[in-house]
Amino acid sequence: MSSHDAVTDAAPIDTGDKRRWIALAIVMTAAFMDLVDATIVNIAIPSIERDLGATFGAIQWITAGYALAFAAGLITGGRLGDIFGRKRLFLLGTAGFTLASALCGFAANQEMLVGSRLLQGAAAAMMVPQVLSIIHVTFPAHERGKVFGMFGAIIGLGAVSGPLLGALLTQWNIAGLEWRPIFLINLPVGIAGLLLGRKFITESKAPKALRLDIVGMLLVTAALLMLIYPLTRGRELDWPLWGHLMMAGSLVVFAAFVVYEKFKTEKDGSPLVELSLFKVKSFAAGIAVQLTFGVVLGIFFLVWTLYMQIGLGWSPLKAGLTGVPFSIAVSTAAGLSVQKLVPRFGRKVLQAGALTMIAGILLYFFEAGRYGTGIHSWQMIAPLVVMGLGMGLIVAPLTDAVLSEVPREHAGSASGLINTTGQMGNALGLGLVSVVFFGVVDDHHIQAPTEVGAAFTDAFQNSLGWAAGVLAAIFLVMFALPAKPKQHLEGGDGDEDAPESVEKEPALTH
Predict the structure, then answer these.
(1) For the chain, how are helix, strand and coil distributed in percent, rounded to 5?
(2) What pLDDT band is residue 497 in, cutting at 50, 70 and 90?
(3) Residue 175 buriedness (CB in 10 A; 0-12 / 13-18 / 19+)
């Protein structure tokens, strides 16, 4: 189908076309591939470090670079799909993601791997926003409930299987490739997605798509780089003056971004960020929660891997299996919170989630200190389950709580901004690992291999303390969320905003 033949969101859906179920399988597989790729890498980090001789700064960029490129391009990726066609952008993003995965898998050094991860994140930012948009225009309203239920199950499966798959692929050391198969596994999946997607996905566009805001995207990307680059490199370079100046300068660039967005709004009404949304108290508070929660997740998942595999000397498989109770707890609590708890208790569920996560973190802090390097996997189950239950109570209902008082016509851009903010927080958290984790490791002045375990345990405890403090602040900010979220984002026919509320669960686990 040529681009001028594309249907718009308001066009009637052919419910007799069985091919739409194949299209659904294709876009869900792509969403699964992106989600797994975000979680699969952490477990392989020690193997990457050994094989490439990667510095800890490079390790942070291998994870943060993906999140940063993904965050910077998410809203623009959605806009490009609305303007030029979702199928076209989905296939372009999938091709880029597959190519970047090959480059990651064959990376000869740490610089090539970091660059390839940036490319992978940028390609994901083109691919992922099209997923729910394609679902929205492919299925009628009465079928979407069932489809989104299936989508949620795929997200849960991705969250559980990512670390396990990463552990198995690294442990098996297929053809002596060590960590490389975690990226190379995307190649057959991506190629199949491209071939089948061309045949079975119907092209669609938004009837009234907003214009691109390239300047806004460049400004916000520059501001984020100026903040995160010195954080990740500062420790290795002994915190030079230029790093502090660059971080201070990022605030100036953020201010310039806000000024430009006001100008862009007055000029053509299509800014990257709809600033008027921040006048809605619950939305502004929700964005603050999403950003800081992303910071917590960015810190925790990286230091957790380093603690288990380098500090305790565990194999990737043992570390991966240790995380299974956590993933199951998140999935269980997420389903329970949306279906049963939030309709009855409102924001108290999210606040209970923050307090539950704090309780799990404090229990983990206590056990890590008590058992030291002799701690066993089974001793981690209790704190991980408590943390997982708390996280599940937050991640699933948060987006709806934040959007509940947003005007309907801004639902799409608001939802895109929520996902972007979560990714930004994740990248920032990964950058802060230099301060909260490696700063403590450096203080130990390790002289012998036997001292590594104690140093990494102390650093892990320090990171947990920071995470608990940030969650306490999140708990307080949650008081600004509406007491009972309104269920208004049902996405009626012809609502071109609804499909942009894209990828809310996947983004949270990156």
Answers:
(1) 80, 0, 20
(2) very low
(3) exposed
Residue whose pair of structure tokens reads 């603690």 in the numeric block: 307
Residue pLDDT, tens place only, 241-287: 999 999 999 999 999 999 999 999 999 888 988 898 899 888 999 99
Q: Coil, strand or helix: which one is 15? A: coil
Instruction: Please give the Cα distance from 419 to 413 (Å, whole number).
Output: 10
**Residue type (1 letter), 73:** G
* 496 pLDDT above the threshold of 60: no
The two beta strands, 7-8 and 204-205, are parallel
Q: Are 202 and 87 in contact (CB under 8 A)?
A: yes
With residue 34 as reference, give the H or E element that holds it.
helix 19-52
How much is the pLDDT for 486?
Answer: 61
- DSSP run (H or E) holding 7: strand 7-8
- 199 neighbors 183 (Cβ within 8 angstroms): no
pLDDT of residue 467: 96
User: Mind listing the pLDDT tens digit for each residue in 126-136?
Assistant: 998 888 788 87
**Distance in Å from the first CA to the final CA of the chain:** 34
Residue 376 has pLDDT above 90, yes or no: yes
Amino acid in the structure at residue 40: I
Alpha-carbon distance of 38 to 186, in angstroms, equals 12
| Token code pair at residue 104 | 């990651």
Cβ contacts of 437 within 8 Å, gap of 6 or more = 299, 302, 303, 306, 459, 460, 462, 463
CA distance 441 to 21: 51
CA dihedral 102, 105, 106, 110 (to 10 degrees): 120
pLDDT tens digits for 147-206?
A: 776 776 676 677 667 788 888 888 888 888 889 999 999 999 999 999 999 999 988 887
**For helices 281-306 and 377-403, what crossing angle results, to 10°?**
160
Helical H segments across 85-140, by residue range: 86-105, 110-127, 129-138
**Is the sign of the CA dihedral 434, 436, 437, 438 positive or negative?**
positive
Report pTM: 0.84
Reading the block at residue 255, the tokens are 């201010």
**How many angstroms separate the CA atoms of 141 and 491, rounded?**
8
